[in-house]
Specification:
This protein is an alpha/beta fold. 30% of the residues lie in helices and 19% in strands. The strands form eight sheets. It has a seven-stranded mixed beta sheet with strand order 5-4-16-15-14-6-7, with helices on both faces. A six-stranded mixed β-barrel has the order 21-25-22-24-23-26. A six-stranded antiparallel beta sheet has the order 28-29-27-32-31-30, with helices on both faces. Helix 8 crosses helix 10. It starts with 8 loop residues before the first strand and ends with a helix. Bound molecules: ligand MGD (2 copies), iron/sulfur cluster and molybdenum atom.
Length: 876
């Protein structure tokens, strides 16, 4: 309970792998108040902008409310009988490997467990893979090679206790914001040093003591060099090396590698090695800049090699730390949801493990070989080898490399089922059967975060329409396919108990994952389950692994691997001269089906963009706010140019988030090749090659509207606002009748219109009113439109306002794009405070405006604004 007297329910944020606890209070009308749970060990009450805006994403207007077959609503029984029949018939005719599931690290453990059991244990195929293949697969492979099992050795407390934290290919400030703020708090108290290894300067470099902008893909060479320096600097832990095999070969290979391929200054490399070697308490955090690479597994092992050689692992304040992306990426690894894993960290290719799981599940023979990994799975769909495909909780038509090809493959598949909360996704619109599922605030189950803490997600809102839980849908299909007893679940608690019981089997076989103490939780205890971290036994040192060896290879030792750096597979050349890096922005989540519903989150960066170094922008003749066309061997995109010296010349960065729903030319994975790491099968999502040219539009437009608008232009991007929608437009084709075009786009055939057209200048300004209030406006010009965008968006539904001047009245300053999403403070407000109130620090901005005082994720941007002003003043 909080002060309002309404009950709050404890749950877990459904976004990133930090796994923050939230307190949810429904307002009784479908809405939800959200605050951080002060008692959750991951966040101790803090939330980032995305967590804080969760309440803005629970509306029902985009929700899928009833099952559909071939576009027509049907009763659940019919839909599920149809799915079961088509899967059974396909298996009967073409064998179990002719069907596949493609699932997600955002499924709850209970959902994931049932999906994996159905495919591997009963259908008898290992063709279940997950979007974790695009995310954690290289780490899984690296951990297994080094440790014998996929174990994250450390805990979040290590970030509190470290003296040096190295962020490798991790933009922690934007992607794990609460963990980053925890690190900042530790830095404030103990002076933790921070080194960032990333080809571009990110928000995570804000407080960094050193930023190494290495050549994309060259991390192995850097860590190989570090290993040689560890050896030469006498930093080996000889007693720990008793627990390690492969040291000599690893060191020899490291000496053969050449650190100059990193492109880094010698002195920077020296400084990095000296800091790493000289600091006992060092944590190396790594994420997608490591994993999403054709040498991803080797990058992981190159990092692990250094920690093993120094014995800096599993002890307070030290160790390698792979931060997980999705809320249940770790849980998915625990249930064995990848095509090459089994369950509870058991091995699919181990006959003893298979027999044990088979006996436990009581199904038929388990598949003996790994199934198809994501990229190969969609290739098999394309080739017609997979004839029935079930996609659950992921949007591969956007997020897979060669996304256009993947979308065509899905469209061409004989039978595709999609389980989602909305039909408005690029994947759902290709499905034969659409199954409506409950969303995070309506579901009950567990998730495991980056440091192995299992937390409950609890249902606080009723399921809308006839939406059902993912596990319940899967279980019903299992029963319809003839396995009534094995899928006889009625609650998620039953599934959790079964999963916990299976972990006892795994523990007996010597695996690390053992939560069997939870296998007899009764329903009430499951309901009340407080966050807890495995291993549950106190044998391990404060929840850590490997401080005293104890690895999971048969000899009990860890393995160091001999590694050699390899550049990314796609090479730049005269035709494709730019290296395209991709990743995330602070306020959007993946393909935007949830975060895109929040006006606050949409106002930070409202359209897809490409960051380009000023010298490259000059070279291709692009000015700020113009558009750029990117072309790769696989597809094209049109994006807004952001000219940024955070980029290295020759390299571009574009976000992964935009889809055909929000900006059809912003689908960045259309450009990315399906090249994969040979060990992990993880695609190289961060190293595409492209040509970049200025996109010459005949006109540019900006529109605001109370209703969803439907642009028709070579480029468009729409975003939510508090009062409706906004859109950017640009097109190569002239429009002959602007009024007709605007009425069509806004779907306002009769609304009253004021307009000012200047054919000589090529400008058009239109405002539509209803009952004296603005309901839509459009501004067109031959150059990028210069209007007060946020001000205009704020005028929707306002009475008696003349927006056609496009100017801001002096008494209502335009706050500009939102920098602080929590406190809703725009860039212009902040700049004005800097200029007129003389604020000179992030803290003073906080005191004056509140910006940066809640989640803190915008503090790097506040500092950048302060710095830009200081630089300007110095120049003046
Ligand atoms: N705001 C937000 N947060 C998220 C998500 C989201 O969608 N939005 N998604 C969640 C998920 S699923 C994940 S997996 C995580 C991802 O979290 P991160 O991995 O931190 O995020 P990314 O932006 O994908 O990539 C990280 C960095 O890798 C760098 N990089 C690219 N190539 C290389 C290279 O060769 N070497 C090195 N060292 N670095 C390189 C990029 O420049 C980028 O800054 O974020 C999670 N958190
Ligand atoms: N170029 C490039 N591509 C990338 C990446 C990159 O860095 N660069 N990162 C990769 C990584 S790390 C990841 S994790 C992936 C993420 O990519 P995806 O998994 O494809 O992205 P999401 O938008 O999270 O998709 C989740 C889908 O599940 C639906 N959904 C939401 N809640 C529920 C629910 O409770 N049940 C069901 N059944 N559905 C639900 C959502 O509406 C949405 O359609 O993208 C990968 N692709
Ligand atoms: S850091 Fe933000 S997105 Fe991640 S779990 Fe916490 S509140 Fe959610
Ligand atoms: Mo991810």
């Amino acid at each position: 309970m909080d002060g309002s007297g309404l009950p709050e329910t404890r749950s877990t944020c459904p976004y990133c792998g930090v796994g923050c606890g939230v307190l949810l209070r429904p307002d009784g009308q479908g809405g939800l108040a959200v605050r951080g749970d002060p008692d959750h060990p991951a966040n101790r009450g803090k939330l980032c902008s995305k967590g804080a805006a969760l309440g803005e994403t629970v509306g029902l207007d985009t929700r899928l409310l009833a099952p559909q077959v071939a576009g027509a609503e049907v009763p659940w029984d019919d839909a599920l009988a149809h799915v079961a029949t088509r899967f059974s018939e396909t298996i009967a005719e073409h064998g179990p490997d002719s069907v596949a599931f493609y699932v997600s690290g955002q499924l709850l453990t209970e959902d994931y467990y049932v999906a994996n059991k159905l495919m591997k244990g009963f259908i008898g195929s290992a063709n279940i893979d997950t979007n974790s293949r695009l995310c954690m697969a290289s780490t899984v492979a690296g951990h297994k090679r080094a440790f014998g099992t996929d174990t994250v050795p450390g805990t979040y407390e290590d970030l509190d206790e470290a003296d040096l934290v190295v962020l490798v290919g991790s933009n922690l400030a934007w992607c794990h914001p609460v963990l980053y703020q925890r690190l900042m708090a530790a830095r404030a108290t103990r002076g933790t040093r921070i080194i960032v290894i990333d080809p571009r300067r990110t928000a995570s470099c804000d407080q960094a003591d050193l930023h190494l902008a290495l050549e994309p893909g060259s991390d192995v060479a850097l860590f190989n060099h570090l290993l040689t320096q560890i050896y030469e600097g006498g930093a080996l832990d000889k007693s720990y090396l008793r627990h390690v095999s492969g040291f000599d070969a690893a060191l020899c290979a490291a000496y053969v590698d050449d650190v100059t391929v990193t492109g880094l200054d010698r002195s920077d490399v020296k400084q990095f090695c000296a800091a790493w070697i000289g600091t006992e308490k060092v944590v190396t955090v790594f994420s997608q800049g490591v994993n999403q690479s054709t040498s991803g597994s080797d990058k992981v092992n190159a990092i692990l090699n250094c920690h093993l050689a120094t014995g800096r692992i599993g002890k307070p304040g030290m160790g390698p730390f792979s931060v997980t992306g999705q809320p249940n990426a770790m849980g998915g690894r625990e249930v064995g949801g990848l095509a090459n894993t089994l369950a509870c960290h058991l091995d699919l290719e181990n006959a003893v493990h298979r027999a044990a799981v088979q006996e436990f599940w009581g199904g038929g023979w388990l598949p003996t070989a790994p199934g198809l990994k994501a990229v190969d799975m969609f290739r098999a769909v394309e080739a017609g080898e997979i004839k029935a495909l079930w996609i659950i909780h992921t949007n591969p038509a956007v997020s897979m490399p060669e996304a256009d090809r993947v979308a065509r493959a899905i469209a061409g598949c004989e039978f595709t089922v999609v389980s989602d909360i909305t039909a408005a996704t690029d994947t759902a619109r290709l499905a034969d059967v659409l199954l409506p599922t409950t969303a995070w605030a309506e579901k009950s189950g567990t998730v495991t975060n980056s440091d192995r803490t299992i937390s409950r997600q609890r249902a606080v809102l009723p399921p809308p329409g006839s939406a059902r839980d993912d596990w319940a849908i899967l279980a019903e299909v299992g029963r319809c396919m003839g396995w009534s007893d094995a899928f006889d679940y009625t609650t998620s608690a039953e599934i959790f108990r079964e999963h916990a019981a299976l972990s006892a089997v795994a523990a007996r076989l010597g695996r690390d994952f053992d939560i069997s103490a939870l296998s007899d939780l009764d329903d009430a205890a499951y309901e009340a389950l407080a966050p807890l971290r495995w291993p549950l036994s106190a044998k391990q040192s404060c929840g850590r692994f490997f401080a005293r060896g104890g690895f999971f290879h048969p000899d009990g030792k860890a393995r160091m691997l001999p590694l050699r750096a390899r550049p990314p597979v796609a090479r730049t050349d005269g035709r494709y001269p730019f290296r395209l890096n991709t990743g995330r922005i602070r306020d959007q989540w993946h393909t935007m089906t949830r975060s895109g519903l929040s006006p606050r989150l949409s106002s930070h960066l409202a359209e897809p963009f490409v960051d380009i170094h000023p010298a490259d922008a000059d070279r291709i003749g692009v000015s700020p706010a113009e558009l750029v066309r990117l072309t790769s061997p696989h597809g094209t995109a049109i994006l807004r140019a952001r000219i940024a010296d955070a980029q290295t010349p020759g390299q571009l960065f574009a976000p992964m988030h935009w889809t055909a729903q929000y900006a059809p030319t912003g689908r960045i994975d259309a450009l990315v090749a399906g090249a994969v790491d040979p060990v992990s099968g993880q695609p190289e999502s961060k190293a595409a090659v492209v040509a970049a040219t200025r996109f010459d539009a005949a006109w540019y437009g900006f529109a605001v509207s109370a209703q969803p608008l439907n642009p028709r232009a070579s480029y468009w991007a729409r975003a939510r606002t508090a009062a409706g929608w906004r859109a950017e437009l640009a097109c190569t084709a002239q429009v002959s009748d602007w009024e007709a075009e605007a009425r069509r786009m806004f779907d306002l055939p009769t609304a009253s219109l004021q307009s000012v057209e200047d054919p000589a200048r090529g400008t058009v300004r239109m405002a539509f009113h209803e009952g004296g209030r603005l309901i839509a406006a459009l501004f067109v010009s031959p150059q990028p439109v210069a209007v007060m965008r946020d001000y205009l968006a704020g005028q929707i539904h306002q009475p008696g306002c003349d927006v056609l001047t496009g100017l801001t009245p002096a008494d209502r300053p335009d706050p500009g794009p939102v920098i602080c999403a929590c406190m809703n403070v725009g860039v212009n407000t902040i700049l004005t405070a800097i200029e007129t109130q003389g604020v000179i620090s992030v803290e003073e901005i906080g005191t004056a405006l509140g910006a940066g005082t809640n989640c803190g994720s915008c503090r790097p941007e506040l500092r950048a604004l302060l710095e830009s002003r200081t630089v300007r003043e110095a120049a003046e």
